[in-house]
Amino acid sequence: MRAIEFRQFQKRNGDFALRDMNFHVEGGYITGLIGSNGSGKTTLIRSIMNMIKPDRGEVLVFGQSYRSHERDIKRRIGFVYDEDVFYGHLTIREMKRIIASFYPTWNERAFQRYLHDFGLPERKKIRDLSKGMKAKFALAAALAHEPELLLMDEPTSGLDTVFRRDILSILSDYIRDGSKTVLFSTHLCADLDRIADYIVYIGGGELRFSGTKEELLERYLLVKGPVALLEQNPLPYAGLRQSQLGFEALLAKDPLRADDFASPYVVEKPTLDDIVMFTQEGGHRYGAASR
């Protein structure tokens, strides 16, 4: 089942453009949408909510188009944004009443349980909540109407480590029965290393990868060693970072293998953070030229 499908999607915003986005998000799993800041992740999330119209192509949600099924689609979606989208002068209880009125599936018992677990007082005004408390309220409100698809745009940015881990645990429980889907957009890829099943990676306005997390991680090797080794044996790196202490290089595994590198090289499996950092702009941000 495809929860979301982008077909020939294109969108320009000033000098930046997303081009030919063709990918889908598998239903029943957690998919991480990754890329550096400004790579277009939020544009894709908002297009799924029909808040941004494509210049070309289309976005299907649950196999349906917004042109004829907007109300039905939006009732089946929950969303958590990094920015504050609530009325600051209202209390949590008052804001909840507005949100609940839009969703026939609203589960008040579940909402009250989340408020209790998150330590959120109903009588407190939204404007008096910390950033972390606002994020907790947004998550409670999104989950309380039991959406089939949960969209999260940088939901853990600026939150403490303990609550970030709590969110990841909640999301794992949320998809457990296989009927629900999460699309989690973030530049903090360590969160996705723990819970993501699939990855969509965008950079430079293009789709760089769409598939399982393990498929992406298996594409590369992270090789470390003294800088002198680079002069003796130039590497066909996808990205390079170096200092007086040594170098780290991300290499495409095909046709290389870890066995091709003997001491003093050190070979490791990269993380998602490594892949994004080393491959964005060909490594230029890390003092290396593209090859």
From TrEMBL:
Gene3D superfamilies documented for this protein: P-loop containing nucleotide triphosphate hydrolases
Keywords: ATP-binding, Nucleotide-binding, Transport
An annotated Gene Ontology molecular function: ATP hydrolysis activity
Superkingdom in the source lineage: Bacteria
InterPro entries: AAA+_ATPase, ABC_transporter-like_ATP-bd, ABC_transporter-like_CS, ABC_Transporter_VariousFunc, P-loop_NTPase
Domain ABC transporter: 1-229
Record PANTHER family: ABC TRANSPORTER ATP-BINDING COMPONENT, ABC TRANSPORTER ATP-BINDING PROTEIN ALBC-RELATED
Name of the protein in its database record: ABC transporter ATP-binding protein
Lineage: Bacteria, Bacillati, Bacillota, Bacilli, Bacillales
